[in-house]
Specification:
The protein is mainly alpha-helical and 124 residues long. Helices cover 59% and strands 6% of the residues. A two-stranded antiparallel ribbon has the order 1-2.
């Protein structure tokens, strides 16, 4: 009869049939606020395009702080870029041309977001 050795680790496992599968969860910090758009985009990018890096970060507990950092950096970068674009391309008067103002602001945000996503969210 073969004796099984059970190794205890910090990762909990669940018995599924004959297999023990790790119960991997994304640990959150105490001051955890929900991930925003750019943090979720980075998470999806890591899962789909960089699975080895994603698994390493998940296992050593650095994934959640990384995602929060990406979210904060992306928002700050987007705000700075929007202010710079508004200085270069001022918006029409909001009181007299609301639709033109909205179209102008959406165009500036799309320009800023396109560059920011490529530089921060999808960065290697």
């Amino acid at each position: 009869m073969k004796k099984e050795t059970i190794v205890r680790t910090a990762i909990p496992y669940a018995q599924v049939g004959d297999y023990q599968l790790p119960l991997l969860i994304l640990p959150q910090t105490d001051d955890a606020e929900p991930l925003g758009k750019y943090g979720r985009m980075r998470l999806a990018y890591l899962k789909n395009q960089r699975p080895v890096l994603y698994n390493q970060m998940l296992l050593n507990g650095t994934l959640w702080p990384h995602l929060q950092d990406v979210q904060k950096t992306a928002c700050a970068w987007l705000e700075r870029t929007m202010n710079a674009l508004l200085d270069n391309y001022p918006a029409p008067d909001k009181a007299h041309a609301q639709l033109l103002w909205v179209a102008h602001m959406n165009g500036l945000k799309a320009q800023a977001e396109e560059v920011m996503v490529r530089e921060i969210v999808y960065a290697e």
